Amino acid sequence: MGSIKSFFKKKDIEISLKRYGIDALGAMAQGLFCSLLIGTIINTIGTQFHIPFLTQTVATIAGTDYTVGGLASAMSGPAMAVAIGYALKCPPLVLFSMITVGFAANALGGAGGPLAVLFVAILAAEFGKAVSKETKVDILVTPLVTIGVGVFFSWLIAPPLGKIAMKLGELIMWATELQPFLMGILVSVIVGMALTLPISSAAICAALGLTGLAGGAAVAGCCAQMVGFAVISFKENKWGGLVSQGIGTSMLQMGNIVKNPRVWIAPTLASAITGPIATCIFKLKMNGAPVSSGMGTCGLVGQIGVYTGWVNDVASGAKAAITGFDWLGLVLISFVLPAVLSLAIHAVVKKLGWVKEGDLKLN
Question: Does the pLDDT value for residue 185 go beyond 80?
Fold first, then answer.
């Protein structure tokens, strides 16, 4: 046992909640933002502002056309895996091999791709670190072991993890069949939490074709998470944190949630309130691209999606015109209510002593 511990220490293999649940998760969120999310933002900007360079095909690979944003989104698996490898302090040959591992896990994981990448990348990274520099042919052995372990576990566990993520999608579809009040609460909370968790809320919404009132509730939940975490952590993270979470991703807080789950109370309760307000009062519908339902305020993609839906509905005759009430609802649901509600609820949570200063600090 002592020899194993000393070997792990030499290889910097630390099996702990902090290393995997905080360091790896936090890094993965950054990898996801630098690929899938930024790619979606680029595509949305190109489409809405009619920028040819951003909407034209720049590459065709295996019969699939890619725009600039499409290329960025396609690299989400490798980006997340490399980010995780970096957080786990992988040596160069292991780190570079994580590109293949991330691609395999994300491709086989479907809507649960990010979740699959998290588990598979950790396993591959640690196995790779274990054999790194242990032989005279390290340049062959280390990549072979890292990629071999990564692809094997991608084949073994990524599809089941993808199915688990899709079960969440089925729950959302079931919720859409309920009357608007309960649907607003369930969809808003579930999709909002999926946005913060290491699963792809955008991919789930896209796979399910989640639009209409359900899409509006999803947008509300995502906004509550992103804007909520941005404002309640402003004291710790200042303007950089406000921007990175408010128009980036609330997944950046996943490490802090693992350390103290109670920091999640305020944004989640806020989403439970804004969801039914969106569906019952403002009748907020997201009839743009389904992926926008799971993006919230990330690059304002959710809001642009709602606006695109309005334009399409007016053009088709399904909607008479875009009204001031529509705009009021979008602004309140997306920004004002999530901020006000989260701050109020968080103040109570702090007064109860459940959350203290520094619990929301981003590294």
Answer: yes
Q: Report CA dihedral (21, 219, 225, 48) to the nearest 10 degrees.
A: 90
What is the rounded CA–CA span in Å between residue 27 and residue 316? 44
Four-point Cα dihedral 214, 117, 105, 88, nearest 10? 170
Helix axes 201-208, 138-176, angle to 10 degrees: 50
- The pLDDT value given to residue 145: 97
CA–CA dist 72, 43 (Å, integer): 10
Q: Which ranges of 209-300 would DSSP assign to H, the alpha helix?
A: 212-232, 234-246, 254-259, 265-276
CA distance 28 to 194: 15
Closest CA to 88 of 62, 60, 121: 121
Tokens of 95: 């780190």
Phi, psi of 285 (to 5 degrees): -115, 140
Q: How far is CA 313 from CA 76, 152, 210, 310, 360, in A?
A: 32, 47, 16, 5, 41
| Euclidean distance between CA atoms 254 and 245, whole angstroms | 11
Angle at 30 between CA 295 and CA 193, to 5 degrees: 40
Q: Is residue 220 within 8 Å of residue 278, measured between CB atoms? A: yes
Q: Nearest Cα to 282, choosing from 214, 331, 329, 334?
A: 329
Angstrom distance (rounded) from CA 169 to CA 187: 10
As to burial, measured by CB atoms within 10 angstroms (0-12 exposed, 13-18 middle, 19+ buried), residue 14 is middle
The string of pLDDT tens digits covering residues 32-72 is 878 887 888 888 888 878 899 998 999 998 899 999 999 99
Of 43, 23, 13, nearest to 130 by C-alpha is 13
**Between 192 and 25, residue with greater pLDDT:** 192
pLDDT tens for each residue of 257-279: 999 999 999 999 999 999 999 99
The confidence score (pLDDT) of residue 1 equals 63
Residue recorded with tokens 């990175």: 244
